[in-house]
Amino acid sequence: MENAQNHRPGIPQDQLPEHPRDPLPVRRPGVVVTLASLALLALTIVGQIAAGADYPAVPPGIVIPAVAAALLAWRPNRWTAGLALAVGLFICAVVTPDTGDHLSSDDSLFIASAPAELLALAGMVVAGAVSVLRFGSPKEVRV
User: What does the pLDDT read at residue 36?
Assistant: First the structure.
């Protein structure tokens, strides 16, 4: 006899919606893209430092995304996804004015880091917003 809790009338067993308490929320596509974007952003800062950009001894462009990524990987939920989104929006406001300088530079690392940085920021903002919305929406479908 089937377990009554696992069977819902009207929905085939193989099409049941995910449980609201997803056992591995880190594997959600929005979270994965957000984490990858945070890592790419930190790598672009490393490339800029290697190209000779003037950064402090402890560059906040590496530390802030690393902390946001660590929190999102540790506790993937609406609040940490929102924090990653806020980091992306903040860095967009701070970084984007320098993009033209990097693209017009003679250094190939600066030129390569600018589009990679913009790609990372776009991925972070879009995937972060998707993650915030997905963590906030109910997963169960009522029939």
Answer: 92
